[in-house]
From TrEMBL:
It is an enzyme of class 2 (transferase). It catalyses: S-ubiquitinyl-[E2 ubiquitin-conjugating enzyme]-L-cysteine + [acceptor protein]-L-lysine = [E2 ubiquitin-conjugating enzyme]-L-cysteine + N(6)-ubiquitinyl-[acceptor protein]-L-lysine. It is found in: Chromosome, Telomere; Nucleus. Belongs to the NSE1 family. GO terms for molecular function: ubiquitin protein ligase activity; zinc ion binding. Keywords: Chromosome, DNA damage, DNA recombination, DNA repair, Metal-binding, Nucleus, Telomere, Transferase, Ubl conjugation pathway, Zinc, Zinc-finger. GO terms for cellular component: chromosome, telomeric region; nucleus; Smc5-Smc6 complex. Residues 188-229 form the RING-type domain. PANTHER family: NON-SMC ELEMENT 1-RELATED, NON-STRUCTURAL MAINTENANCE OF CHROMOSOMES ELEMENT 1 HOMOLOG. This is Non-structural maintenance of chromosomes element 1 homolog. GO terms for biological process: double-strand break repair via homologous recombination. Component of the Smc5-Smc6 complex.
Amino acid sequence: STAMAAQMTDAHRRFLQLLMAQGILEGSEARKLHRRCCEIHKVYYAHDKLEDFIGTINRHLQPLFMQVRKGMSEADGRAHYALVNLAETEITKMASDYTENELELFRKTMDLIILSENGFASSTDILNLADQLKTKKMKKKEAEQVLKVFVEDKWLSEKNGEYTLHTRCIIEMEQYILSNYQDTARKCNICHSLAIQSQVCDSCGIGMHLPCVRKYFRAQTEPRCPQCNDFWSLDIP
């Protein structure tokens, strides 16, 4: 019954605890966890009811200004779930875990990533910022260590010396980024969530996530921009 479904059970609590411990769960992990929690606590389980299950958790989190949000990995388009704190901006939340100059390095890294063409910043460019920090300069070795921690804590992702924002960071900081980078941050024209790694139309300037580009143009013989209908000159990933 619907009344039952809206009840927060031990299955919901266990799910939430494990999500909090992980910070973020990939879609298939979340589905497995949903099933496991329901089985352990003998709560009604239906494989297609994960969104309802999370909806129940979210109703109970509302007074705490928390929310389980769904987002997408910009690399492969997979769904992810993260617990978001709505009461404070994420930078303040990070402040309890990092020193002032570490936070400044993170902000500057974020600037580089968001203002870049492709949504990445090279480690060289980031490390060059380390000795220009206003709060307290950082040695390169120290800055490398801090970047490693940002990756471990799932604020940044790194591939071949290039850094981008982790999916968790994008889900949690979407509002912060959209309001602090109004001129440069753009939403994906297809899925309407924040796009950091994106392709941008040469003619009208709309952006699309790479997985969204791939999906959108899959069925088209000649790729044209969904907004202005001009030829899409970029390579389809």
